[in-house]
Amino acid sequence: MSVPDPRAADRATPPRKRLYIRTWGCQMNVYDSARMADVLAPLGYAPAEAPDGADMVVLNTCHIREKASEKLFSELGRLRPLKQAKEREGGRMILAVAGCVAQAEGAEIAARAPHVDLVLGPQTYHRLPELVARASRAAGAVIDTDFPADQKFDHLPEAAAPQGVTAFLTIQEGCDKFCSFCVVPYTRGAEYSRPAAAVLEEARRLVAQGAREVTLLGQNVNAWHGEGPDGRVWGLGRLIRELAGLDGLARIRYTTSHPRDMDDDLIAAHGEVPALMPFLHLPVQSGSDRMLAAMNRGHGAAEYLRIVDRLRAARPDLALSSDFIAGHPGETEADHVATLDLIRQVGFALAFSFKYSARPGTPASGAPFQVAERDRDRRLQEIQALLREQQAAFNRSRTGMQCDILFTGPGRHPGQVAGRSPWLQPVFAEGPTTLVGQVHRCTVTAAHPNSLAVQVDGSAIGPPDRNPEQEKAAA
User: CA within 20 to 30 Å of 160's CA: 200, 204, 381, 427, which one?
Assistant: First the structure.
């Protein structure tokens, strides 16, 4: 009688390949990186914690932040010896550059970094299996920077690795706004909205994998207008109402929004859908009408303030965050003061502020009256100081308050668990890891500059009951 060789199964199963993905930028890039890993999984690629010895390295880039290209080429320089070491061992590291810098500067990347095997834009990663095969045969870099957003979503695999208690879900891509400082219309293409049925089905899969909170993503997420199952075009407010009816989904968020796309139904949803969290990122960039016109924002400061008033009337506990640019070409001291005034009028719980830096190909990059570096630095420091004061004041205002906390994972210290408040603040509490994935009523015991300490008061809370208005809308 023959004895089975216990090593036969190992020989029959090809060894797993190691995939390392480094992600820069926004949540959409985080989502894209996860989907790239999903696309490559059937080829045998499994995630690696570091690039050393990896069979494939993907750098998923962002063109929004300052010196994005320089950071990319610096990282490519660090990876070159690792790629050479892999070759000396008889293997091969496929080095890929993805994302918005790849879209904007694909030819330059191939010229300046000839050790790069693959350059692909953000709308083509569904073609990774084909591109990897081509890169394996090619002598030079394979470049694919087309704009087929609709094809990408149609061809992504349904199977996806679980994201955890909180999950991202891209529903919209691209931008038609053409703000003077922004490269997104050139790197992500025109606005595209996924059909509602596809979004709802992906949300159901995320919830089945353990997600309790889903954040809807888009370059202009509230510009989403997708075809509904009823054949009509839905807006984001309608989509949120439908998502709120999914069993097991406790919380919904969306980012990044544009003031021009805050319609009546979406504003109403903030007051009518309990699952929609009372936190909204609504970029304004400047408080000066003159600068908002120069930026091609399509709204003025007064219009932005009216939208804020309507949102707070719909949801009084709503907290706001925003984006600000210091020193856009042509900005004067008066314009800067107007921005500080708007910040004081609104009162932000959180905000992101940046010193203007030119993006090649954008209208502002060649505009006259570029602001001196020292003035940009000073104005940014003044904006950030005011925003830090407001964030600290908002966090202090939560002290002693009872609120529902979604616990998302273990804390930094033994016996500690971490979570999120309704206003997106990181939260820490003493408690067991069995709390993870649950929503509990808690009391805020201390406020820190960037987080809250809470005490768990009650038992787990289920998903919010549907609002009567929501029932009407769904019908």
Answer: 427
